[in-house]
Amino acid sequence: MSLLTETRDSRAALLRPALRAVGIHFAFDxxxxxxxxxxxxxxxxxxxxxxxxxxxKSTLLEVMAGVRAPSRGSVERSGSVALVVQRIAAPDALxxxxxxxxxxxxxxxxxxxxxxxxxxxxxxxIRRRVAEALERVALVELAERPFTGLSGGQRQRVLLAQGIxxxxxxxxxxxxxxxxxSESRERTQTILADEAGRGxxxxxxxxxxxxxxxxxxxVRLECGVRVA
Length: 228
Description:
With 228 residues, this protein is of the alpha/beta class. It has a domain at 3-79 and 169-227: Rossmann fold, CATH 3.40.50.300. The protein is built from 8 helices and 9 strands. Helix 5 (123-136) crosses helix 6.
């Protein structure tokens, strides 16, 4: 393969969206929630998904992540996904620490590397990634605490750290600023901007005007339909 061909292939990869959802329909018990949604998430950009309560924002996020299957339509993803939901349920007896939950983000990536014949990250590298992720979300002091003992906002930060440790190509977050103080909201916005800066595609369901204002683009839903 020539250098020119490699360059063209690299440019083509950059132009392709990290996630493309086309004609997405979804219903709960026969009641329509999403009606023909088209959305693309570009690598290196932050997309705000806005709209009133009940507009279908969280459902769209779950469909894009693959947690829910659309009744019609398709979703194409070009890389690994980090999903940070608003309400994170976990059994009280779940015997995992914050550090262990963050480290879980590296598991699938190690398997994918082996499948592709690539050299997997060393244990030292994994520990470094986990430590770096915990520091970025300001949870180092809670690293050995049980995950189930955290507040909802802290659990969200743990899942964000899990995506950082994974080096996810796509971040999907549901109300990441909900219940956070101003300092924590600014930290989260900075982290997401940094992840977009390294080439990840970021999408946030949000009602936060500040988050919408600094996003690269906005998608607005009304009654399960995307509007201009």
